[in-house]
């Protein structure tokens, strides 16, 4: 009999571990410090039970746990300190536990960043609204024998563009009625003077007539190791209008420059636009158009996310139709700040969010690229912090 019973007990032990159960009545554990009366201690234990079950309704033995917690408090308090210590401990207990900061590996960080960047790629429809060329335009050459100077608004004969003349203009834009270059108003004497008039190719058709656009899906088919690039172009004025003269690309993740090439324009250079382009001459290091595109195709492919400020002009000047774009002029800071929708200059954004002064001297492609990348990084970091 006894042998059988012990067997049964063993079987029971195997299937059911003895369960802890809450006592029917709350009884504080004895302490020698006499911190409070028994009824007060009981009341406090009930209070803890409430708190515990509110925090975790699935708790099976809230009374046992509460008795333990109260006991720890009672042990270390005297009659004078019990109330205060109890209140302090209840405050700690009611606060949600601090989340332990997650430590992510470099790879995990990159995956998370990539996910955000992909979400920020601007939809095609929006790109079209902001002037991006999303389809190869029909070639429409400008047959007129004259052009309007984009600086001084003088009409000039195209054939005479290289003959010295006087072009007077303000090189800065106008803000609140004043030119930012010299703070002159509409009627002030222009602060800059050159010997030639210059012009832009204004319509997509005119651009297409000089050099065809190409879809990056057609020409950049080899997968690149760079998934996100900051890109920036510099242009010069030529007898063919405004042309590509330099491309720089910076890898988003390493901030390293992965491309910096100079491109030979098709027309004869009329003005190097040095103030903005930083270019002073054309030399042997300048690549042909096809060589340049080949080099660009080595660092990017059609799925590469390009980051830049008002990239529509850069893509147009490279005659590229590309859909994966993060444009800092469209995205920031309107995404985070309420207020009238307006385009911010890269200079203003860099100053406001990065406390960085750019474009103080000559324009530098890599400086601009890096500023656009760092702006995106700044906001990606904010987004990551928000999500963690
Ligand atoms: Zn001026
Ligand atoms: Zn002019």
UniProtKB/TrEMBL annotation:
The record, for Gene3D superfamilies, names: Ribonuclease H-like superfamily/Ribonuclease H
Subcellular location, record wording: Cytoplasm; Nucleus
Biological-process GO terms, alphabetical = negative regulation of gene expression; rRNA processing
User: Where do the Exonuclease domain residues begin and end?
Assistant: 227-385
User: What does the record list as coiled-coil region(s)?
Assistant: none
Q: Which InterPro entries match?
A: REX1-like_exo, REXO1/3/4-like, Ribonucl_H, RNaseH-like_sf, RNaseH_sf
Question: Its Gene Ontology molecular function terms?
Answer: exonuclease activity; nucleic acid binding
Where does the record place the region Disordered? 1-24
Which keywords accompany this UniProt record? Cytoplasm, Exonuclease, Hydrolase, Nuclease, Nucleus, rRNA processing
Q: Name one GO cellular component term.
A: cytoplasm
Q: What role is this protein assigned?
A: 3' to 5' exoribonuclease required for proper 3' end maturation of MRP RNA and of the U5L snRNA.
Into which family does the record put it? Belongs to the REXO1/REXO3 family.
What protein does this entry describe? Answer: RNA exonuclease 3
In its UniProt entry, the species of origin is given as Candida maltosa (strain Xu316) (Yeast)
Provide the organism lineage as a comma list: Eukaryota, Fungi, Dikarya, Ascomycota, Saccharomycotina
